[in-house]
Automatic annotation (TrEMBL):
It comes from the Archaea. It catalyses: (4aS,6R)-4a-hydroxy-L-erythro-5,6,7,8-tetrahydrobiopterin = (6R)-L-erythro-6,7-dihydrobiopterin + H2O. This is Putative pterin-4-alpha-carbinolamine dehydratase. PANTHER family: PTERIN-4-ALPHA-CARBINOLAMINE DEHYDRATASE. Its EC number is 4.2.1.96. Keywords: Lyase. Belongs to the pterin-4-alpha-carbinolamine dehydratase family.
Length: 91
C-alpha cells in the first residue's frame, strides 16, 4: 500500500495541467476529433493495466477527462502522480 500524500506534497508533485479535485487528480485532454480521443483513452487503459492502477476515463466529443485516485488508501498517493506523468507522456 502507498502512503497518502499531504496537501503540501500534492501541491508540490502535481504535474502541470493536472488539478486536484477532492481526493482525485484530474486533467482534461483536448483532441481534434472523437476517434483521436478514443485512441488516447485506449492507450491510457493499456498503461493502467501494465501498472495495475486504473483511472476513471470519460470520453467526450473532442476531449477526454482522466481521473486518478488510490481507492484503497482513500486519496492521492505517489502512484497517482506517477500515472499522471505516464499519461502526460502519451501526448
Amino acid at each position: 500500500m502507498a502512503d497518502l500524500l499531504s496537501d503540501d506534497e500534492i501541491a508540490a508533485k502535481l504535474p502541470d495541467e493536472w488539478e486536484r479535485v477532492g481526493d482525485e487528480i484530474v486533467r482534461v485532454f483536448e483532441f481534434d476529433d472523437y476517434l483521436e480521443g478514443v485512441a488516447f483513452a485506449t492507450e491510457v487503459g493499456e498503461i493502467a493495466e501494465e501498472e495495475f492502477h486504473h483511472p476513471t476515463i470519460e470520453i467526450r466529443y473532442e476531449e477526454v477527462e482522466v481521473r486518478f485516485t488510490s481507492h484503497e488508501e482513500g486519496g492521492i498517493t505517489d502512484d497517482d502522480v506517477h500515472m499522471a506523468e505516464l499519461t502526460d507522456d502519451l501526448r
